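Duplicate of earlier report; Ig-like domain-containing protein input re-posted below.
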Amino acid sequence: LDVEVILVPKIINKTLLFAERNVDDAVKLTCVTIANGPPEMLFEFSSTSRSSQGLPAYTIPEWTAIQPRYGLNLRRIQSDDSNPTLHKLVLDNSDLRRIDHGLYRCTVTNKAGRAQAVGQILVRSEPEMELIPSESTYFVSHKPWIASCHVTGYPLAWEIKPTWRKRSVEFEEEDDHRPSTESTDELAIPSETPPTKNSSVQMKLFTMDGQPMNRVTIGLINYEANKFFGINATYEVHMNQRLGKEALVRCEYTHTDKRIIYRESLLREATKPPAPNVSNTLFITVLCAGPRAVVFGVTNPLVHKDSLPTERIVTQKVIFGPAKTFHNSASMDSLVVYLDSDGQPSASPANRSDDNLPHATVTSSHRRATAPHTAIIPVKGLQADTEYVFEWSSGNEFGLSVMVQFTLWTTRLETSPAIKNVVFLKPTANFLRFSTFLADPCPYGGGVRAELSDLLVRYRPAKANGSAETPIGQGDWSEMQVCRNMLDTDKSESQNNGQADLDEEQEGIQWAGDKPIPCELSMPDAEADYEVQIATRNRFGKSDWFTAIYR
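Output:
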C-alpha cells in the first residue's frame, strides 16, 4: 500500500526574489518551492508608496495580485520527473517602470499549509518631490499649518541609516489544517531617530517677492524614510505675525550629487466669507414679521469647483431669543439651514441644536444650479408682541464665519384676520362648498390663523339687476352660521402637527393665500344664485364682512 504524505511547502533560494535595476531594464524574479500536492503559487505586489494617503507611521501595506501587462508576464515552470516536488513561478518584466519599485511576495499553498517569502525590486530612478498639505493651501491666523515634503526615487540621500528589523508574519488557515509560520526577509523600517539639522529635505517660506520670510517658525514634527516609500518629512508652520494675504511655501531636497529638487505652492490666508448684504453674493433680508414667526430671505453664492474656498458657504444657522434675555444661553434657540451641493439653502430648515451641521460640497453632478436663488426661511414658534434678536452666522470650510444681527418685534394679535379671497367649489345636494383664503401677510407658525376660532357665514338670494352682468343680493340675510368644517379642521390640525411639519418639509413653505380653509354650508337650494358674506372671529372680535356672489 503506497501512502503519499503531503508536507507543508518550503520556499528555497530566496535570493532569486531580490533584484536592483534601472528604469526600462529587464528583470526576473523566481519563486522556488519544494512541495507536493501539487501546490498553488501566487505573486503579489506592494508599492509601499504612501503619497497623498496620509497613513500614520510605516505599516506593511496591502498586497495586490500582479496583473500581466505589456512586458510583464507570469509563467509557471512545471516539475520534471527527476524532481517532482520542485516547482517554480517566474515573474518576467522586460519594461521596468518606477511604479514597479516595491515588495514582491510569493505565496505557496497546498493541502498541508502555506508558505510565503517576501522579496523586492529596487528600481533606480530620479528623485521626485511632492508637497502635500494636511488640509489645504490656506492657513488660518494663529493656527499651525501642517504639510509634508514627500520625496520618491531610489537611491536617496538619507539623513540617517534606516534600521533593519525582522518581522514574523503568521497566517491562519481557513480549514482545520495546521497553520504554518514563515519568517520574511529583513525589511527596512524607518528609524525613529530625528534627522540632523543639515537635513536633505527642508521646508522654506518666502514672500511673493522671493525674499525669505522672517518671524516664522518651521518645526519638523514627523520624519520617515526608507528605500521603498522614500522620505516623508512633515512640518508644522507657526505664523508669529500676519503674513499678508499670500506667501510661497517650498519643499527642497538635496540629492546625493548636490542637485536641489523642489516643489512650490502658493499659501493663502483664509479669510471670512463676504459680509452679508454688503457683497453681491450673500444676502440675508427680513421678508415679514408675524405674530408667531419671522420670515427671512437667504441668498448664498453658488459653490462650484472654481469658487474660492473662503467664499463657499458650507454651514449656516441662526440663533434667536427674546431681546431682554438674548445673552442668556438658556433662553436661546437655534435653527440650522440645510445646504445642498451647490451651497444653496433649503426652504425646509429645522429647529435643533446639533453640532453635526450639514455641509455644502463641490460635486460632479451634471444637474447643477446656474444662478443662486433666494430661499424663504421662517423662524417659527415665537411669541406675539415680543422683541427678538436674530443672529445669523454663515461659515466656510475653515470654520470662519460672518455674522449679521436683526432686532425685530413680532406683531400683536388684536384684530380678527381679514379675508383675501373666496373660491366656490362644486356644490352637493343641500350644501354650499367653498374655500376661504386669509389676508395674512406672514402666516408662518400658524400666523393669525392660530387665533382663528370661527368662520361666520350668512347669505341671501341674488337676482339680476337690469343690464348688469353680476347679480346683486336682495331681501333679508339668513341667520348667521358657523362654518361646519371649521372646528373639525382645527382639531385635525392640532392632532397632526407632526404630520403637518413633515408635509411642510416635503412640499415647501406656503405664503398667504396658498393654504385654504374649507367650509360647507347647509342651504335649501344649492342650485340658486346667492350673495354670500363671510367673516372671521377670534377672542378679540369679528372682522368685516367679505362679500362674494355664488352663481
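The first helix runs from residue 486 to 495.

Merging into the original ticket.
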